[in-house]
## 1
Amino acid sequence: MTFVNWLKRHLVVIAGLLTLAYLLLPNVVVTVFSFNKPKGRFNYEWQEFSTAAWQDPCGVAGLCGSLSLSLQIAFWATLGATLLGTMIAFALVRYRFRARGAVNSLIFLPMAMPEVVMAASLLTLFLNMGAQLGFWTILIAHIMFCLSFVVTAVKARVMSMDPRLEQAAQDLYAGPVQTFLRVTLPIAAPGIAAGALLAFALSFDDFIITNFNAGSTVTFPMFVWGSAQRGTPVQINVIGTAMFVVAVLFVLASMVISNRRTKQKA
Amino acid sequence: MITVTTNKTDHGGDIRLSGIAKTYGSFTAVHPLDLTVPQGSFFALLGASGCGKTTTLRMIAGLEEPSAGTVHLGDQDVTALPPYKRPVNTVFQSYALFPHLDIFENVAFGLRRRGIKSVKKQVGDMLDLVQLGEQARKKPHQLSGGQQQRVAVARALINHPKVLLLDEPLGALDLKLRRQMQLELKRIQTEVGITFVHVTHDQEEAMTMADTVAVMNAGRVEQLGSPTDLYENPRTTFVANFLGTSNFIEAEVDSKSGDDIVLKAGGGKLVLPEARCGAATTPGGKVLVGVRPEKISLTHADDAGEIPEGRNRINGKITNGSFIGVCTQYVVDSAVCPDFEVYVQNVDRDTRLVPGADVVLHWSPAHTFGLDAAQDIDAGVEEGAAA
């Protein structure tokens, strides 16, 4: 009876912890298997603890090259998509123009289109234009599919912004440039940052569209896919774990900084 | 041209609007308007929502471009200047404080944009003036409504503008705080001597704070004057109903006697000083006779003989009486007006004055005003009641 009561009282917490475990278990597996020393080529069964892969993360031919390429593409795609997407979002919220409603819905189309269809059509387009497949075709494709997400994230933020804030800035002697830099941009920043993070994550691990339009270029997701046919090197788990740790560190750092700021001011 | 004169000699802070108008497509928000607000005055634009008062204010601030006409500040034509080049600051409705900046930086914003480097002392002094020195490092959302309002005033005043514009600055505050802030704003205005232009829909607020009130209706200024002048001598039914309450009687001009006009209404006679009549007074013409509820005395019909000679009288029957402390508000049914409102001070309460009692309403002819009968008696009633 006491157990039932205990269960009743902690039901929400238990459900929460189970969901969290469900969410994080794959990450744990990735991390644990980065310390495995597999027999044979496949890293699917736990054998024994080893830090060999961590000591030599680039030990597999082509892995670090593909990683560097993916990071570069993700960086430029994020920059391009965030710049264009932010401008589109401001235009859609702030200005009344012909076909504004149509543009508003067309922006969502790339999100709704099945990715594999989009990938095949893009390839058709690039081939017909005579474009050389590689870094640039991948970058163009990534900026294209990241745009919708950036626009959506920034638009939500800009819509909730009080236009009177900008009028107040103008009333207080800020010209158009100052108003944008001192008031509009800082207030829209969380939306822009969210859009940029989303774009980076989407670009970094995109496989389908990249695979169609990469030509002979190999990005990190393509490398993982390719090597999985012949065997999975432990280094893949090392890179995955490292990315995860870096992301967590970023979050922790930003939390510490904002905490310190509020403490200083109080 | 409507002009208010004061004995001030410096005209650098005068606001002169000449033929200023604003249209959106086919909708006219403000009809061509001439208005002069003298330096150092506390001026209120009063009206219901949608009457064009805020649009007028925004045209002074430069946030709205007039469709026609010019705006002068002192001798300078500022019509073509963008808001950031006008020596005018605004306290916005719901304040528009910058959420990402703390109180200190909000107040320092205008100084910094004009390239002033050492702002610390000025901002500190200004925050002390509005009693917020302790809150300098807080963010706007951490302050109460009244505190945010004071930040908004400080943020505007620190720039020493020639004119301070206030767009319904007290609308978001509760009643008690609003009364307090009204006195506070009035005190600040007297202290700094800057021209204040205050937009409000609250007639009490306008009358308490302003030296001069312009009552606006449907994009036009209906009447402009001091609060007492507007209240005692309304020139339209809109003003008479929007500012306080008025009783109206439709009457016919009978004759003239000296400076007075004698009118016929419901079989009785009423006297109205000609100077207080805003309508044509040819015999046989129609006039709306108005009188404020607190000017009327109520006497029980049995004592009708004690009423002094020379007062306007009307017979009626009390239909409703509500005691509200300082006074009792009666509604009296009479032949000339079905629901005459009468406010009687609770000095010597006559216990016979209950619903159903026959009474005589009487008031001094000097408290009567006459308006053109060709207008809606109820103009401004709901808006005034809502405010």
Note: The interface with chain A takes residues 61-63, 82-85, 88-90, 92-94, 96-100, 102, 109-110, 113-114, 137-138, 155-156, 159 of chain B (CB under 8 Å).
## 2
Amino acid sequence: MNAHVRAADPKQRIKGATGDWEIVIGLEIHAQVTSQAKLFSGSSTAFGAEPNSHVSLVDAAMPGMLPVINEECVKQAVRTGLGLNARINNRSVFDRKNYFYPDLPQGYQISQYKSPIVGEGEIVVDVTPTESITVGIERLHLEQDAGKSLHDQHPTMSFVDLNRSGVALMEIVSRPDLRSADEAKAYVTKLRTILRYLGTCDGDMEKGNLRADVNVSVRKPGAPFGTRCEIKNVNSIRFIGQAVDVEARRQIGILEDGGTIDQETRLYDPGKGETRSMRSKEEAHDYRYFPDPDLLPLEFDDAFVATLKAALPELPDAKKARLVSQYGLSAYDAAVLVAEREQADFFEAVAKGRDGKAAANWVINELFGRLNKENKDVGASPMSADQLGGIVDLIGEGVISGSIAKQLFEIIWTEAEGGKALDPRAVVEARGMKQVTDTGAIEKVIDEVIAANPDKVEQAKAKPTMAGWFVGQVMKASGGKANPAAVNEILARKLGLG
Amino acid sequence: MTDLTKLTLTEARDGLRAKAFSATELAEAHIAAVESARLLNAYVLETPEIALKQAAVSDARLAKGEGGALEGLPLGIKDLYCTAGTRTTACSNILGNFVPTYESTVTSQLWRDGAVMLGKLNNDEFAMGSSNETSCFGNVINPWRREGSNMGVGSAGVEGTYLVPGGSSGGSSSAVAANLCLAATATDTGGSIRQPAAFTGTVGIKPTYGRCSRWGIVAFASSLDQAGPIGKSVRDCAVMLRSMSGHDPKDTTSVDIAVPDYEQAIGRSVKGMKIGIPKEYRIDGMPAEIEKLWQDGINWLKAAGAEIVNISLPHTKYALPAYYIVAPAEASSNLARYDGVRYGLREQGRDIADMYEKTRAAGFGREVKRRIMIGTYVLSAGYYDAYYLRAQKVRTLIKKDFEDVFAAGVHAILTPATPSAAFGIGEKGSADPVEMYLNDIFTVTVNMAGLPGIAVPAGLDGQGLPLGLQLIGRPFDEETLFALSEVIEQAAGRFPIPSRWWA
């Protein structure tokens, strides 16, 4: 283990019978590269096809077949390396990792062992909106995914689906820099966001396109690293957090009982909320890595990297900083918006030519709130940025009040006309939702309310905050359309509170 | 009518163009020869119907004055080359009755140029062997016999011991020598083209690594394997190699360098060329006949105007041990795919591990198992640095030996092809496999360095058996090898078999 040591914040420590413990976590993320074809064959990578329908002669390891590197996967790995602020290795080597398994047709996985395509880097991870940590990236390498064994298709046999066999994965290895389940979750969340911004991995954990091997050890604060266990193939961010906590408590329990931790590979069972042993160090495979003689070393020049770098999209950290400075947003709002590129894009479309804070308020509170409720992402929003921008405009121009705006939002969200999206301004016009700024009309309503409630007038004179009751009555009587500022002003005058 | 099978490939080509005979007649003559020579066991699968069909197409083309470089010429194909729709086994039980749906790049180029397929040729199992005694289809017999031995079919006894044709391309060398095809494809990982050629009085060239595509050829050791032809003459090999060569995007180790018309190199002057004679190849206990053969070669090249220089390739003695680490290491991984899951042999087992073990135990022969075990061992944790890594370092040094010599102006290197003539079946290696491995002592360096090497017959030993010389060239300078070999062939003559004793 590396001597690189980051101490945990004391509040992250776990209380044990013998005192405080600190968790040390390192993550190996397997991210499926977004590409049309597999890493070394032309087969499609599309998800959900009939078993064994995306299998070439190379994927099935027929005799005499040879791998040919897919250049797009190389580009994706380089883009990712750049996004992780990492060193790009212009020369890397593919190795064979040898083991037998039915879903591994070649009898070896082509991976990168000693010379990965991407070296050390780091990312900034927001643990809370105001707290961030820097997490070291050890390396990123390209490798082939395996196929899938199906054990539920036949009473005595297992079937193998090779659609996934040979699909490109990036294995992204962090340094052991994480100190709590929350940090681990925040790290994976951030990494996923970066990958999605880059377009190099869709981060779809349900499809297994992003999965984590979680290395956990515990130690007394300030002590050297303890023996770690590797929890394989955890496939949701929530489970990563649970697995870390469960495993740390298991290890602390053993150590406090005077036992020792065996280095081993474990599996997390979310149903039982426990990790259990998969294989011990002694049972570990000897993978007999050696350079794949079918492939030349992977080499490219600086210009290749520079071209990719020049075309990189704005990444979340830069975008967040820009949203704060350009639109005057709070760091919190900016962080919420940049979590997904599509969200930030939607916001910027709404904010274009408008007040940024108001736009952020409507995008985050109303739109995202509604999307969340309906379990939709921003791409599936029934309301366009133009429509939401139209609502913001109407508020800004004083055409509608805030409460009317919410009604308008509801109408725009749920209704359409002849299959066409509604124009907010036209709806306000057609349905008489315009705010009343005609002071004469407002005065008339106020006069009526005052005349009907002489006792309340007396009370208000003694207690000026009672004016709020009158505002409510006036708004109610006007159907919410009265301009609140005008109501306040006239009421104050009429009640003699001015 | 003359016996068409006695023609060389280029003579037959010229005869077809001159319409002296038809491609169908040529195919029929060879099909008959193959049928009458089953004793030699050179073919593991005969495909006369394919040959006749292809020949008919060739005749139609030739009649119109069209046709490729190999139009209508019947060839034998080593069973390591995948042939679409035709059983391909690498002569291993583990592939069972495997029928590829695809054609190797090299053979597809042969068919593109009009060649005719007579069948699949025997070889050592997965090309592992130097005598063609490890094939699951049984031994191949060399059409050459020791002088005075006069065995008939089925006879035995020391005097009458059948000789090996060399290996691993023993079916190829035997078939070419016995006129069972005009030329054959072969592969060479440590000498598997050159040693069998030398044992049978035929010519064999292993081109530069990367010259021919490996796509569709069953892999033995990927960094060493290279396709090449065995033929009856230097010219025949030149014509064959031109069709077999070329860049293939499906093999990233194949090289994108234009393929020259190698036949043009035949007869080219070798005057002023510097020929290196490496002192390290003068090994202890080298038979006087081999010494004399080597000297004859020197004299012939000198007479043709070449300059002979003594050179040193200091790391030669490490080549064989390093080779027997690198090649098995790669093989142990390359052969992992034969697991009974998707194709080939499957022996049922209690569970997946049991199925693997039973299948591989039944499917692989002794020599293949030995090499898988050696390869697995040298790649194991704790041994990798001591064996595999060190062998790779040796390989770099061997390569550098050659580079230094070529940089000093040497055009080609002349050595014996083998330490002896063909030996009897069962005579070598049964007690100690290293005895068999020593056959490759002059040839493995060339594979380790990725260089081109050609074996050309140059004389007979005291028992009347052919002996070969080897010429090693600069990378992608096969033309110089053809020019120099032609000088030797002109001086030594060709070595057709004395009789068709098996027929």
Note: DSSP finds 15 helices and eleven strands in chain B.
